[in-house]
Amino acid sequence: MSRYVGAIDQGTTSSRFIVFDRAGSVITLAQAEHAQIYPAPGHVEHDAAEIWTKTQGVMRAALEKGGLQPSDLAAVGITNQRETTLIWDRRTGKPLHNALVWQDTRNDRLVAEFARDGGRDGGRDRFRDLTGLPLASYFSGLKLRWLLDHVDGAREKAEAGDVLFGNIDTWLVWNLTGGTEGGLHVTDVTNASRTQLMSLKTLDWDDGMLAAFGIPRAMLPRIASSSEVYGETRAPFSGVPIAGILGDQQAALFGQTCFSPGEAKNTYGTGCFALMNTGTEPVPSKAGLVTTLAYRLDGQKPAYALEGSIAITGALVQWLRDNLHMIKDSAEVETLATTVEDNGGVYFVPAFSGLYAPHWNEGARGLIIGLTRYVNRGHIARSVLEATAFQTREVLQAMAQDSGIPVKELRADGGMVANTTLMQFQSDLLDVPVVRPKVAETTALGAAYAAGLAVGYWKGIDDLKGNWGVDKRWTPKMDAGQREKIAAAWGRAVQRSFDWKRDED
Questions:
Q1: Residue 142: which residues within 8 A CB-CB, separation 6 or more?
Q2: DSSP conformational letter for 221
Q3: Could you report the per-residue pLDDT of 100-110, keeping only the tens digit for each?
Q4: Which member of 206, 269, 504, 505 has the greatest number of CB atoms within 10 A?
Q5: Within a 10 A sphere around the Cβ of 31, how many other Cβ atoms?
Q6: DSSP result, 265-295
């Protein structure tokens, strides 16, 4: 039997290939960054051909680094940046346009038009009951509509079945399984749920959504489960089953083994993405979250999740470093923050381009409030860290409100979990433990788990639960009165961020 499982982790800034053993430990990995393309303000693109080249490179490099052969892999899973939208020619295999990255906002006029057409009873939520998503530039469906409207000949070719659509998972599977020589055109339910074209109930492309957005069904991939054998690799090496696909945040939920309703994780990165498993029925959100697929194992009922996306968290630390030059390295923010006992009354709302969940206010603007002559660099640094924790608290409170299930423990992953000051403050604000797992690569691990389950490498989710272990646990130390006092101050600051745009208008 093959000894390991591999995972392609294709993210917003880089592609990685990681090999795991049966205990979920990393055996070898390789990583390569790809270019970020900014052709105009609000436009963010990736060269999909470059991503494919880099993916092949890291797959080869990781095996070589670990002294492994393709035959050592029982299966390969894929996790990917979600919502990033691509169209390519079925016959030539060449993209018709650079991929529109999830951050790209060039379709904002389409969003406004569809929201306006929804009328007083619909607006931005006109498709929420069907798809779980509000109208926003974030999701793939209207990005795809923009491409069909602006790329010469794309719509006609798409209607004829000669142009294919996919998020990056679909692009990779198509190329891995042969591309123009019989490549598979497939996605999984988690990625499909981020297009705003799939019904949450049927788990199929919805004819009404396709008609509303003007999307030809012929260009769409088959929607499969998150864990099944889709096919075998032909490039960059042959014969390894491709057996798992999960969008990156769902993969982290899976890697954190959040398999029961109420279990939640938060990924602390450039932004934050909190997901809570809500069980086998979708939970509609009334509190500003999105309803999405958590995963679906082959032949089983799907699991759903509530998700709260926060745009600016780790990016705020980068801003402190790159724009204000207050620190030279991101890790220095914790050292600076610990020079003071508290935030000195300073609150930083990082609404650089509006606020995501649970507010979904594109007109909000960033602010620092509470400044006095007492405030120094340490207070600013602490307010930067605390902004991440305050925003996470808002999202988890919304999850509890929507689901009726209070979060009893938050499983944390991502680059910022190395910051012990932030993690302790997060536990204090939530009044629940925050836990960092032993295996930090939870996103790639989730994709590996999905693939390994499909081929019997792991027998079931109990095997995966047995792998999960605690590296560090933070427990709340703040008294309730202080917690509510600072949370109320944060809430007032957020309201002021809304007022700024209204006053400007």
A1: 107, 110, 111, 114, 135, 196, 213
A2: P
A3: 998 888 898 99
A4: 269
A5: 17
A6: EEEESSSEEEEEEEESS----SSS-EEEEEE
Going from the C-alpha of 475 to that of each of 68, 129, 261, 480, the distances in angstroms are 41, 37, 22, 14
505 falls in which pLDDT band (50, 70, 90)?
A: very low
Measured between alpha carbons, how far is 375 from 238 in angstroms, rounded to an integer? Answer: 61
- Which two tokens mark 343? 């935030």
Q: Which two tokens stand for residue 347?
A: 């609150």
Amino acid code (one letter) for 245: I
Q: What is this structure's pTM?
A: 0.89
Comparing C-alpha atoms, which of 404, 454, 396 is closest to residue 278?
A: 404
Residue with tokens 């027998």: 459
Strands, E, within 318-449: which ranges? Answer: 347-349, 367-369, 410-413, 434-437
The partner residues of 256 in beta bridges, in order of sequence, read none
Q: How far is CA 499 from CA 96, 345, 387, in A?
A: 42, 20, 19
In order, the DSSP letters of 364-395 are ---EEE---TT--HHHHHHHHHHHHHHHHHHH
How far, in Å, CA of 190 to CA of 188, rounded? 6
Cis peptide before 221 (omega within 30 of 0): no
Q: CA 320, CA 326: separation in Å to the nearest integer?
A: 6
Size of the chain in residues: 505
pLDDT in tens, 16-52: 999 999 999 999 999 998 988 889 888 889 999 999 9
**395-432 per-position pLDDT tens digit:** 999 999 999 988 899 999 988 899 999 999 999 999 99
